Amino acid sequence: MDGWMDGLKASLSSPQASSEVEHRAGYCAFYDECGRNPTVGESLIPPIVPCLNYSRVCPMLDFGESNTYACCSLQQIASLETSLTLSKAVLIRCPSCADNFAHLYCATTCSPNQTLTVNVTKVMNVTHLGRPRDAVVAYQAYISSTFAEGAFQSCKNVRIPATGGFAIATMCGRYGSKLCTAQRWYDFQGDTSNGLAPLDIDFRLLKENDTTGVPEGMIPYNGRALGCNENTTTGGMACSCQDCLDSCPRVPPPPPLPEPFRIQGMNGFLVISIILLCLLICAFVVYLIVSHYVKSKNGKNLSKTGRKGKIKDENSNEVGQPIINPSEVTCADKTSMAAQAFMSRQFQRWGTLMASYPFTVLLVAAIIVVVFSVGLKSIKLTTDPVELWSAPNSRARQEKDFHDKHFTPFFRTNQLILTAPGRKGHLYDSLLFGKQNFSGLISKSLILELLDLQRRIQVTKDLNRTATLKDVCYAPLNPSNPSLTDCAVNSLPQYFQNSLDNINLKCHTLSFFCLFSSSPLSFKDITDLGMSCMADYGAPVFPFLAVGGYKSQCPNYTNAEAFILTFSLNNYLRDNPKFKVALQWETEFLKIVQDYQRNPKANFTFAYMAERSLEDEINRTTAEDIPIFMISYAVIFVYIAVALGEYSSCKRLLVDSKFLVGLGGILVVGCSVLASMGFYSWIGIPSSLVILQVVPFLVLAVGADNIFIFVLEYQRDARRLGETREEQIGRVLGQVAPSMLLCSLSESVCFFLGALSTMPAVKSFALYAALAVLMDFVLQMTAFVALLSLDARRQDNNRCELLCCVTVSTRRPNKPNEGFLLPFMRKYYAPVLLHRFTRIIVMLVFIFMLCASIFLMLNVKVGLDQELAMPKGSYMLDYFQYLYKYFEVGVPVYFVTKKGYNFNTVEGMDGVCSSVGCDQFSMTQKIRYATDYPERSYMAIPANSWVDDFIDWLNPGSKCCRLYTSGPNAGNFCPANISETLFSADINLTHILTTRFMAYHTPLTNSQEFTAALLKARELAKKITSDMRKIPGTSPDFEVFPYTITYVFYEQYLTIVKEGLFNISLCLLPTFVVCCLLLGLDLRSGLLNLITIIMIVVDTVGVMTLWSIDYNAVALINLVTAVGISVEFVSHMTRSFALSTKMTRVERAKEATATMGSAVFAGVAMTNLPGILVLAFAKAQLIQIFFFRLNLVITLLGMAHGLVFLPVLLSYFGMNIYRCVAGGRYNALENTTLVTFDCL
């Protein structure tokens, strides 16, 4: 592509010496050809001498027949055409640029007034066709800077679609496109050391009226250079926008970003939260005032009516007790009481039955668990992140499947980022490029060390010698039968074709780096060595893929701080045998890199990764953290075993302990989890590591609570006269089982509804958790009742727990054992909490917490940075740090077209391409416009376009444009009529069913940027699709979509907020419905229950913002879990309050707080907290953040709301259930005709 002047033969001078040339119009400085320049080595291609018309080469000198004069022969015209043909390979996309480029050489070679511009400075005697001739080998060309600058400006933005780079970068030597100027451009063209110019030309660019140094009689050439937005004289169209900024239409800049939501200059959400806080406080204060007024009025009315029914509460406060007739009991009251009585009777019968036949029950329960658990033999653990977090029917997943089906899956990346900290930079004075500042990294010794490491990796084999690099490598130019040198390995040594000889040549390595990094597409360097910049696999290595850590705004690669070494492998589906081969090679790759890292002689500090690293590290840390979970469960077990004991005396310590009961409770939880996992394994629903970690923890929290409620209620109960042990257990179960059913059923329905989620990980978790909670309740109602019956039998016989044959003489006390917690909460905690001033403070504090959490919730970060999935100390954390610090370009992104677009028409081609004559708003042009605003579009490099390459390939003005990479013609140009398998990786050449165009994102460093890049790419693709559908012949369902490997992971964050609201709402619904139904259509209790749970969830999300816990799918799973755990904290208390027989709301709240609150505190809070605290020692950051931090927050907030806020809330707004209870008393006491109820 760079051979824009190769093959032009040296021109024959006139007989006169250069100093004797007369500089005036009508005189030639040289004429005809004298063979090759003896000072120039082999040219890139042999010259071809076709018979052409003069006007095709230099139309600007064509003045018609009999009026056209020239200083060149037909041979010179033919050679000039050949030379210009090579330049057109990179410039023909812009006809005016190509015309201006040719214009100068036509003026200096063929102009009839040649001597006015050209001054021959050196001639050599050569023998050509048997005749000695004087050949011109150097001359000066005096050019007007106006013409030169105009020609340069017309060419400076011409692109090479295949690379996205600028053509000028290949024609300006070491300066590249960024630092190229008109003078530097011409200097490079006239330097024979570039391997391209046939003779030395000293271009002197002079400003208007500047004659400094101009020989007498000479006039700087001042032709008219066409603007790139002008048509040429031969009918060539103006250049396209992609190649000429002046041709670009006025594209409006993207609309400004929406202003942050503000009210009167303040954060709008903060203002709303403050307003809500004020409204809620005002509403509460108004309620207090109205309530006090009503109580005062009712007190006066009672004194007037003369009703004397007064009783005293536990604080000796008089409470009004109006007397009512049983007929006043409403239907709702009767329904509520009937529901409670029915459930209590049924559970009492059931409990008595289970306690009467414990061994039979345990055997049947064990058989059922075993039957379910047998399914575990078919269990499948999903470890693929795509399968876990991306729904099969999601857009990103379908687009990924489409791309992988029609093209190959995104290649596998194995990469090292190497630095050499502490090495001082230095100044290097290059003969070619002058003084250059180099970082300490860019040195020959380190390049050699990098090459040595690269070679060691390239030749690696696994122990079975079945996995070699060439077996699985990505070989774009020889995919069918690649050799080791065909493998795509991008690194700095590739600039030297991985050759020690090339690096050790006499010219300094640093000089070549300056050249190659500035012009990676060059086939020959500008020295007499003729080295290529191309990699050994035949493609260019762009500097941003070889080095990093330079300033990206104006790249100076010599200041790079990092080498980048990348091995690209083909990707395969997981059931493809070669997938395992790729994994084997990557395993060996990691071993070699890790061995090198441990080598004390290594001069590099580096980070590395393999494609398999993410999954490997997640699996590794999961395995390493299993002991942490085991310790957590052990701590919980020890606590349960100790806390359930009665400990009436030291002599009965081993008798009254509940070690086996605690163990039985843990086994019940474990069996319920195993049964759930076995069942779903039977029906083919895969499990995951998240399920293995979270579900047992959740079920243990739920199960432990029920165990404590049941056992503590049994310990606090006294056996009635004539009542058997089994009947007592059945009666106690009848009292507490409805509450256990309320919580378990709410949670189970909650999780089953959560299975409607589209996220596979959330869906499978919800299914496993729902069945596990349900099975846990069933086993508690059966197996655990049987275990408690056996333990009670042992305890009644005064037998030790672990030594059943040993008995003690000390008898068990007949009075109930209330333990320590119940008296403490009854005597101290509940009275203090429900003091009238304390209640006001509690309400105000929790109202403030709610409003503050609403504000914080609206500011929670959405996403999951991939480094959080790694354990502390993982080598991947170093890699991510290096990646974000040193990489100057983001991931490649493909714009993929689906079936339905007609590429066979002119309109179809114009709608895609960006060459001359193409639609200014074609697909590739729209992508290019997006790169003008990278901070908004997240697009860094425009898309390369096979359509433009194909147009250039077939352009009659460009006769050769590719090189053979292998075979007998290796190194020679491949003419346009030899297409072979060109573009086969991107399109179906028969029908063009689908194709893709690759661009690059900007560097993306966190999940918010990845998500925003996905959103912007989709917006761009949507606009492209809309416009391309308007082109005749396009199918209405035609579509363009963006694809890169990361989209499938980050798509969830576009909808996860809505998804979370939907899932949590579904979970909250059954907590309200079930509570209402099981409390006999008690809407008020159900509503208060629901409000408290909502507050727990909102406050949890608020604390997530404060504690830097991002909202993502893992957090969503925990929030769904939070609803379930909140039910345990709240629903037991609500039901206990509703069924209390105390006279006032305050007294019922005190009783519920003391009796049920103590059981909830011991069973939920104190069961969870020790196990959660152990998780703080886990290595995995995900566990530390989303299981330790988040579960700690959930437990503490649940405890605060359930044991502090809810009793106060019920004391103010709770239902007057006493009437319902009174109705129950009336039915029980047949001779009583009048009952009382609390009207407050």
UniProtKB/TrEMBL annotation:
Q: Which superkingdom heads the taxonomic lineage of this protein's source?
A: Eukaryota
- By its UniProt entry, which Pfam families does this protein fall under? NPC1_MLD, NPC1_N, Sterol-sensing
The answer to whether UniProt assigns keyword Cell division to this entry is: no
Transmembrane ranges, per UniProt, are: 268-290, 353-376, 626-647, 659-683, 689-712, 732-759, 765-790, 837-858, 1060-1080, 1087-1107, 1113-1131, 1152-1178, 1190-1210
Q: Which GO terms describe its biological process?
A: cholesterol homeostasis; cholesterol metabolic process; cholesterol transport; intestinal cholesterol absorption
Q: Give all residue intervals belonging to the SSD domain.
A: 625-790
Q: Which residues form a coiled coil?
A: none
Is Lipid metabolism there in the keyword field? yes
| A single GO molecular function term of this UniProt record | cholesterol binding
Instruction: Give the UniProt entry's GO cellular component terms.
Output: endomembrane system; plasma membrane
- Reaction catalysis annotation: cholesterol(in) = cholesterol(out)
* Listed SUPFAM superfamilies: Multidrug efflux transporter AcrB transmembrane domain (SSF82866)
> Any idea where this protein resides?
Endomembrane system
Q: What is its main location?
A: membrane
PROSITE patterns in the record: SSD
User: How does the protein associate with the membrane?
Assistant: Multi-pass membrane protein
**Alphabetically ordered keywords of this record:** Cholesterol metabolism, Disulfide bond, Glycoprotein, Lipid metabolism, Membrane, Signal, Steroid metabolism, Sterol metabolism, Transmembrane, Transmembrane helix, Transport
Family that this chain belongs to: Belongs to the patched family.
- For this entry, the protein name equals SSD domain-containing protein
Q: Which organism is it from?
A: Poecilia mexicana
